[in-house]
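Protocol step 4 of 6: structure prediction from sequence.
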Amino acid sequence: MKIAEIQHALREEQLDGWLFFDHHRRDPLSYRVLQFTPNSPVMRRWFYYIPAEGEPQGLVHRIEAQTLAELPGFHRSYSDWGGLVEGLRSILGKARQVAMQYSPNCAIPYVSLVDAGTVELVRGLGVEVATSANLIQYFESRWTAEQLESHLEAARRVDRIRREAFERIGERLRMRERVTEWDIHEFILHRYREDSLVIDHGPDVAVNGNASNPHYEPKPDASSEIHEGDVVLIDMWAKLDQPNSVYYDITWVGYAGKDVPSEVERIFTIVRDARNAAIRLVEDSVARKRELFGYQVDDAARSHIQAHGLGEYFFHRTGHSIGPELHGTGANMDNFETHDERRVIPQTCFSIEPGIYLPKFGIRSEVDVFVGDESARVTGEKQEKLVLIG
């Protein structure tokens, strides 16, 4: 654990300290940031306080006295509830504002892990509770050089499999063979296994109206057949089957035929241009070293779709943080589901994936953007026109 780095970040955020808390291992972020694993069950509450200046302190129950043994600093113990309150008062000392895994109005659910009662307990001691969202992003969401390379390699493999999946549909159609969403779903999973890629669920293969459900996933007994004249959306994500690798996540859309209907072409063009508007904002902001917030990226894509009178058909955020988990703990590109005021910081990655979901068909175009110190870039192939299947 990098105590000095955490304390520097606390001073940057103008906070007196960072108060970690857990009970029954409800907060995985605490364990990952503090870089420890208790060697016993966590059946009682523990607190660990890192002040912006000075030595960290812990508070544990007497029957679980070894819970924080791996962590530096002086550790107090308590037995009854009165002792817990006094122990907490003692380790907080003169602190007046501390970070916790809390988000006002649960605006950032990924960080909002401390229960309301514990927040009330801390506030009852005269200490203001601030969100740890920016701190979590800094210590959780920044990629190492090795993680970036794992992402880029996953991108190469997934992009290849995505091309093969559309080609597979085309081959079946040319041969007049039946092909379903489930067939292509299974084909992608088979290729993932061959290429040493892993996935937590999915992928999504959706035809026509099914593509208007952003989280549609075909099932063996509930899957549509793909025919000529269909819109086909493939949303796929995966990471290398190795420790600490990170995800690559994309969505592409194709049309089964040569002559794309004008309405399908029009909607694709609007979605693509909305995506590109958001990408340009990120690239320009990073290049000019201009502060950028997650909600602003959402605004860039959403305003383009709204300008075409289709805002009601774009009903999810523009993008999400990406890490070892598909939906990471960094800034989301969101001013719709939440108002994400977290800064977009270097060494983080996120998706940009606007969509328009009409009753007859849905279109989404998704890329991943990695932000470096001097520039930002799309990490894989970028769809600029509809795939003509077959």
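Step 5 (inspection) to follow. The chain has a mean pLDDT of 97.
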